[in-house]
Specification:
Elements: E1 6-7, E2 14-20, E3 30-35, H1 38-46, E4 52-58, E5 75-86, E6 92-110, E7 113-121, H2 128-148, H3 155-161, H4 167-177, H5 182-190, H6 194-212, H7 218-223, H8 231-249, H9 254-268, H10 273-286, H11 294-308, H12 324-334, H13 339-355, E8 362-366, H14 373-384, E9 388-392, H15 398-402, H16 415-423, E10 429-433, H17 447-455, H18 457-460, E11 463-464, E12 471-472, E13 478-483, H19 491-494, E14 497-501, H20 507-525, E15 532-533, H21 536-546, H22 553-571, E16 578-579, H23 582-589, E17 604-605, E18 607-614, E19 617-629, E20 634-637, H24 642-657, H25 659-662, H26 667-671, E21 672-677, H27 691-703, E22 706-707, E23 712-713, E24 716-717, E25 723-724, H28 729-738, E26 743-747, H29 759-764, E27 766-770, H30 773-780, H31 793-807
Parallel strand pairs: 2-4, 8-13, 8-14, 9-10, 10-13, 15-16, 18-23, 20-21, 23-26, 26-27
Antiparallel strand pairs: 1-7, 2-7, 3-6, 4-5, 5-6, 6-7, 11-12, 17-22, 18-19, 19-21, 24-25
Helix pairs in contact: 2-3, 2-6, 2-8, 2-9, 4-5, 4-6, 5-6, 9-10, 10-11, 12-13, 12-14, 20-21, 20-22, 24-27
Length: 808
């Protein structure tokens, strides 16, 4: 036997002893014993504590043999005695609960019973591979023995398979349940090496199998009736004979090894009871299916998912322990600006801290591409100390979101459960990207309803993935969604969300972000810690000439192209320091993508600068109207939606109804065609917010009066000329500011929306608020020229006769 390490207490307490000769108790075990030995009865009488601590030790010899105190100085089990019951004849029935192995020394007899000093001992763990092999051999031999010997119930192997987590405890259970002799049980207690304990239990069972297996006499075998065996019974007999032969040879069935390995993983994993029961049932099926077959592979895969799911693993404190100050510091350190969006997220977390849970609508961060939607969520996860799980919902169907049932071939779990397993925690920050793309395209099932099961608080606590088919609690998950257009998110999902909008950046903000955040990161990525300098004026030139998008995407790509060129030059021997200026920028990137806006050019007839909102942010929308000889047709071209086409028709009707006040001859509508065109066809345009711009363009073309090009406008107009408010004011104003527009016409009802626009932008733009179309005409349409118009042939003939008559 191996020698165990031990730690002797400075002042060891003495424990009363209960010597036993017919049985023993193991650590973590509970037995009921009838105590009749005089010394043990004296001890119980002298110690009436209902939770008395004792040491249980096997005493050698017969029932009436005296006890040698030196034979008790060995490994014993500390235990707690409870539930005493006095019985006739002077015996006591008691419950003994084993605690741990201890080493006894200095055993003495006083006052009619034994006491001993003790010291804790440490068991020596077994190698994992050796333990697996020995456990498999023990179970194989025990199954064969249980089928041969009636004193071992057939349920014993099944019970042992449910307790494979601790190999040492497993060996103790084998000795207890397989009815080892008292000497063998004591030998099991004495072995502190788990490997030696397993080896002893294995050899004991294999020896019993050889001694007790009945062997048919040859004569009996020859005279046995030749009755055809039952196929099922024959299969059972053959399987039993295989097990017996494997036990005798010490071989291990490969399938049995897989079963034991899976059961041990189930035992050691911290699974809910329902998951444990289902996993064990599935593992038992492995013993009845073909090894290496598809069903066997499917069972192993399913159990692997069950055992690796983070059922109880947390990565951060509960919501009521959130440190909002630390989270705010991490957000400010990671991101420049976006103060309003940070505040809204902190407000959401403050409610969670007060409530103690994440109940309520989830944040949905809305904005154009590359404005920092994902970056702010990554920073938030870092501030919370939680892992980040991500799921892009575009083109995903219901099976991809919540899995497919195991009855289908190739079944897999959904992306929600898969992401939780990947991060290894049940409380991550879960980023749901492209929420406005969910359900679009050719998808299977209803992904909207599937996602609602995860977002609805009442359903979240019992979320069921179709593959696992076991409820998984998602109440600790912090879901955050992103979208480009909040109103394209299905309404059933919008009810579970609160919108946090990011409109975009001004050129000045882009320069600030590039200077303090983007450039240091890109320099490190390109291996250029030195050798190039970015003056602020050059960054401004980049922002205005090459990066007029709402986000930082174009700015980042332009800087990356410059740094790649510098990296190549450096590797080819250029050690000078580049001072980036406009000339070098144009050499690398070409001429600026964005030329001066129409606001910087001369006014033109029929050309109006409108403002539009798209999923990519605010955009300038140039509207052209051209009058030409014709028959009164209205021609509309451009990448327009149905609502926009209706707005053009309504604008034409309004201009026609107000022709007199606009100075338009009514004959122009009969003898001219009007072509309304929306250039930049790559930008989809739909919605009524271009109503005043279209109306002004048509009025300008028909009245031959130019439109001011230093002014942009947006607003909806009715057939009676009333200007109605519109949405997306902040995005449109920022787009105008990036394009150099310094005057904007807005509906009077949108005046309150300017509070969302950055203060520096409001100071640089002159806003005019209008209530009727007449106000727009007065602000943006040049004064009508007092010129004589050439009369039409019809009018000339009508006036010629009277003049001739008068002459006569």
């Amino acid at each position: 036997m191996a020698t165990a390490r031990k730690t002797r207490k400075k002042s060891p307490e003495r424990l009363p002893l209960i010597p036993l000769r017919s049985t023993t108790v193991y650590p973590l075990g509970v037995i009921g014993v009838q105590i009749g030995m005089p010394s043990s009865l004296e001890m119980l009488a002298a110690n009436e504590d209902p939770h008395l601590m004792v040491a249980v030790v096997i005493a050698p010899g017969g029932p009436d043999d005296p006890i040698d105190v030196t034979s008790l100085e060995k490994i014993a089990v500390s235990a707690r005695v409870s539930d005493r019951l006095n019985l006739p004849g002077g015996t006591v029935q008691a419950t003994i609960q084993g605690l741990e192995r201890v080493r006894l020394f200095d055993v003495k007899e006083a006052n009619g019973y034994f006491t001993a000093a003790f010291e804790s001992v440490e068991e020596q763990p077994a190698d994992e591979e050796e333990a697996q092999n020995l456990i498999a051999r023990i179970l194989n031999a025990l199954e064969a023995l249980a089928a041969e010997v009636e004193r071992i119930p057939l349920e014993v192997p099944r019970i042992l398979r449910m307790n494979l987590g601790d190999p040492g405890h497993f060996a103790d259970l084998v000795a207890n349940l397989a009815n080892f002799s008292v000497a063998s049980k004591d030998e099991t207690v004495q072995r502190l090496s788990v490997r030696e304990r397993l080896e002893f239990a294995c050899s004991e069972l294999e020896d019993q199998l050889l001694n007790f297996r009945p062997r048919a006499e040859p004569a009996e075998a020859e005279t046995a009736p030749a009755t055809p065996p039952n196929p099922a019974q024959r299969t059972t007999d053959l399987r039993h004979r295989i097990k017996v032969l494997q036990a005798e040879l010490g071989d291990i069935d490969p399938m049995e090894r897989q079963v034991i390995d899976a059961l041990r993983r189930i035992e050691t994993a911290d699974l809910p009871m329902r998951a444990v029961a289902i996993a064990r049932t599935e593992i038992e099926r492995l013993r009845t299916v073909q090894a290496g077959g598809p069903e066997s592979s499917e069972i192993r895969s399913y159990v692997d998912w069950l055992t690796h799911m983070p059922w109880r693993q947390r990565s951060a404190p509960a919501p009521d322990e959130l440190d909002l100050t630390h989270i705010e510091e991490v957000l400010d350190e990671s991101l420049l600006g976006l103060n309003e969006q940070k505040d809204r997220l902190l407000d959401h977390l403050a409610v969670a801290k007060l409530r103690g849970d994440l109940r309520g609508p989830i944040p949905c961060i809305v904005g154009p591409p590359d404005v920092g939607k994902t970056a702010i969520v990554i920073a938030l996860a870092r501030g919370l100390g939680r892992p980040l799980a991500r799921l892009e919902l575009g083109s995903y169907g219901e099976p991809q979101v919540i899995g497919t049932r195991r009855t289908r071939a190739g079944a897999t779990p959904g992306k929600i459960i898969s992401s939780l397993r990947d991060v290894g925690a049940r409380d991550p920050v879960f980023l749901l990207e492209e929420m406005d793309e969910i359900g679009l395209g050719k998808v299977e099932g209803d992904p909207v309803a599937a996602m609602e099961e995860a977002l609805d608080w009442e359903l979240r606590e019992n979320f069921v993935d179709r593959y696992l088919d076991i409820p998984f609690d998602l109440s600790d998950v912090l879901f955050i969604a992103t979208a480009q257009d909040f109103y394209r998110v299905p309404r059933d999902l919008r009810e579970h969300m609160v919108e946090i909008r990011i409109a975009g950046y001004t050129p000045e903000e882009k320069v600030e972000i590039a200077e303090h955040r983007l450039i240091p990161k890109l320099l490190e990525e390109h291996g250029l810690q030195r050798g190039i300098k970015f003056p602020r004026a050059s960054l401004t030139y980049l922002a205005y000439g090459y990066a007029r998008d709402a986000g930082m995407g174009a700015m980042r790509r332009a800087l990356e192209a410059i740094l790649r060129t510098r990296a190549r030059a450096r590797t080819q021997g250029d050690t000078t320091t580049w001072m980036l200026d406009a000339t070098r920028i144009e050499e690398i990137l070409g001429l600026p993508r964005y030329t001066p806006t129409p606001a910087e050019s001369a006014p033109e007839v029929g050309v109006v600068t409108g403002l539009a909102w798209t999923a990519a942010g605010g955009e300038l929308m140039f509207i052209e109207a051209l009058r030409m000889p014709g028959s009164g047709r209205l021609i509309i071209t451009g990448m327009l939606g149905e609502v926009m086409r209706e707005s053009v028709n309504a604008a034409y009707s309004y201009v026609r109804s107000r022709s007199e006040s606009l100075g338009i001859d009514v004959e122009e509508f009969r003898q001219s065609d009007i072509h309304v065109h929306f250039p930049v066809g790559a930008i989809p345009k739909d919605g009524p917010s271009a109503g005043i711009a279209v109306t002004l363009a048509i009025a300008s073309a028909l009245s031959n009066r130019p439109v001011r090009h230093d002014i942009a406008m947006t607003g909806e107009v009715t057939l009676r000329g009333k200007v109605l408010e519109i949405g997306g004011v902040k995005e449109k104003v920022l787009a105008a500011h990036r394009a150099g527009i310094r005057a904007i016409i807005l509906p009077a009802g949108n005046q309150r929306d300017l509070r969302d626009v950055p203060a520096d932008v409001r100071q640089r733009i002159k806003f005019s608020f209008v209530e009727r179309m007449d106000d727009v005409v007065q602000l943006a349409l040049a004064a009508q020229k007092r010129t004589k118009r050439k009369a039409s042939p019809a009018k000339m003939s009508a006036t010629a006769e009277p003049r001739a008559a008068k002459k006569k």
